[in-house]
Amino acid sequence: SDHMENICGYLMKYTNLVTGWQYRFFVLNNDAGLLEYFVNEQSRHLKPRGTLQLAGAVISPSDEDSHTFTVNAASGEQYKLRATDAKERQHWVSRLQICTQHHTEAIGKNNPPLKSRSFSLASQGSASSPGVQRRPSQNAVSFFNVGHHRLSTGKRVPIMQPDHLVDVREMMSQAEGQQRDLIRSIECLPVSGHLTSLDQDLLMLKATSMATMNCLNDCFHILQLQHASQQKGSLPAGTTINWLEPKVSLANHFKNGAAQNFPAEINKPASVREEQSVVEPCQLTREPEEINPDEELEDICDDKEDDLGAVEEQRSVILHLLSQLKLGMDLTRVVLPTFILEKRSLLEMYADFMSHPDLFIAITNGTTPEERMIRFVEYYLTSFHEGRKGAIAKKPYNPIIGETFHCSWRMPKSDVGTDAGSNSSAHSVSEPVTLPKDPEGQKELDYYTVKFVAEQVSHHPPVSGFYAECVERKMCVNAHVWTKSKFLGMSIGVTMVGEGLLSLLEHGEEYTFSLPCAYARSILTVPWVELGGKVSINCAKTGYSASINFHTKPFYGGKLHRVTGEVKQNVTNTVVCRVQGEWNSVLEFTCSNGETKYVDLTKLSVTRKRVRPLEKQGPFESRRLWQHVTESLRDGDIDKATEHKRALEERQRNEERLRAETETPWCTKYFLKEGDGWVYHKPLWKTVSAVQTQQTDTN
């Protein structure tokens, strides 16, 4: 290729937390498929300080800024590099990607299929046996006899046959099973004595065995790409390419498409077969579905996350995971252990922020712009308490791209506009609002309905969109959130990047708002959740704004979950209300007219959401999609939950690869990209505007 040129130049390379960034001279050797670096250009004739094989590597521009990018080698080694500007970064990234693709394809074309590889874990006797007593010169690897058979050199074929990939997949499944047995054997060792489960060498053996399996998966992906490219070149246009699957049941690899029908094994769980049978997104309708609220039933699920048993039992797993992380590391692509998961998807967690629909609907009942802003602040601050399930910091499921969640709430009209659940020294009752009649002339209902829909619109970066509306009160909220998580040492920080928009159409007002950061503290003992950071709420039309500060607990003293804020009239720079308290306990609102209101969140009534039964949900709706993971977690079967979770994640990765190979863009179902944000495809403000225009034309 004309673009296969050797380039060289200075780049900044991130070394470690202490040393930081350092200038190094880099050389791209296209012929050898190597990226090498030297201390400076003058030392280029010496041995390079570092070398990366580019075959099978992944070159990724960073989300941090326009200058940084990473080179992730198939060996697991990573270079984090920074160019002088965006143009230079693009130059390096494009050349590295061309070289990587060339050498990756060459490996697939020039190497024969794998024939056999087996692992054996030999017992070395009981712990009391003298043969197991460890000598100072004996390393941990010698405790386990891991044997390798030489790979036989089979006949090279120009096009890899389907059965070859099936055989490779089956061998990898066996190897993964042996690797899990190795891990279990290490973890079953005592925590004290000559050889313990926390031995440094054994922890290293666990890490390297896992890295080896990851490399094998990457190599298998190379073979899949080679096969797909060959198929793509020989099949007629429009043909759907299905990923090859094994003929027998596998522990960790499940079917991605529905075109191939392999015989079901007797010992294969029905739930796994169901996960395997979910069709490709390109075969599913992406047309928005109108959910009938009458089909939804009041939710009876009550999964409180108050069990510490799993966390205590998996302490060694947490220690091992922490040993692999670095300060500031982005955890977006890190697969966390299953036992720390909540029994719900992140999309459903966003829905639980709406568990006080009476306070949400009451916002538009405010008689003045000032009162409406204060009511919105009250609703905003009371939403986070129910969004958390219990005091233990657990993580909701990462939604897969295309996943959706639907629900609704019914709120009796008599309960809206009152201060039920709060203790205030002054109450203000809003004027009743005349509701529009049903367009079909049906009898007016005695309750309001709030509808909610959420969708995972992007995988990298992980972005969720959610929308809620109350048609009767002509109000709706639209938001998009990009979750960015980082490792902070003894805690994990999650930044909620994005923006929300509340529209009160009766008043022609729009309120923009942001979300606080979340922290999982004390991850080695009893993890707990803390919110932190400053958020703002603004209404451009009325000139009112609110500034809210979620305070993190200082190292010494201080209160937990403290929040303070103030509502201000921007034109006069006058503070009209001050807020203080705890976002999960009692909040105090003090207005400039002397009125004081207390809201006790522990006594605030929670309205249960209404959800369709599983049998009426689509295959990509959250509860049906994750049902087997949730059931396994309820039963306390972590291994089974991990298998189901891995099946969904593997399917998502395969689908993403297939879309990349066929150059098929992902199509969202309910949300449309507008600028940097995502907007619901049929928001209430468009519907109401269209109806008003139609009425004007009729008159």
Automatic annotation (TrEMBL):
The keyword Transport applies. It is found in: Endomembrane system; Endosome; Golgi apparatus. PROSITE patterns: OSBP, PH_DOMAIN. CDD domains: PH_ORP10_ORP11. Residues 116-129 have a biased composition (Low complexity). GO terms for molecular function: sterol binding. Residues 104-138, 416-436, 637-658 are annotated as: Disordered. Keywords: Acetylation, Endosome, Golgi apparatus, Lipid transport, Lipid-binding, Membrane, Transport. The keyword Transport applies. InterPro entries: OSBP_sf, Oxysterol-bd, Oxysterol-bd_CS, PH-like_dom_sf, PH_domain. SUPFAM superfamilies: Oxysterol-binding protein-like, PH domain-like. GO terms for cellular component: cytosol; endosome; Golgi apparatus; membrane. Residues 4-101 form the PH domain. One of its GO terms (biological process) is lipid transport. Heterodimer with OSBPL9. Belongs to the OSBP family. This is Oxysterol-binding protein. The gene is Osbpl11.
